[in-house]
Amino acid sequence: MGWGTQMDWLLFFIGGILGTLLTIFLFDWALMIPSSLVGAGLVTETLHADYWVKALLFVVLLIAGIVVQSGLMRGKRLQTTPLDGK
User: Fold this and answer.
1) How many C-beta neighbours within 10 Å does residue 33 have?
2) Which domain holds residue 52?
3) For residue 34, is it within any domain?
4) Ordered per-residue pLDDT tens for the chain, 86 residues
């Protein structure tokens, strides 16, 4: 075994640890953003309106979806975190 092979394993290990940490911390956001995109797209596709109206509504619904879901996530975290230290 040469030095390159051992270094490869170390890099794979560090990459796996970083990937796991990113998944733990960003998992909720990774679900929120696509679900907001899909929801806004489904709503705007059902409308029979001008292109600019649909585009503006898509952006508004996308932002609203992300804000609402992040607020729900924040509320969930505040409920599970004890404030009195018990």
Assistant:
1) 16
2) 3-80
3) yes
4) 455 677 888 899 999 999 999 888 888 888 899 999 999 999 999 999 999 999 999 999 999 999 999 998 877 766 665 655 55
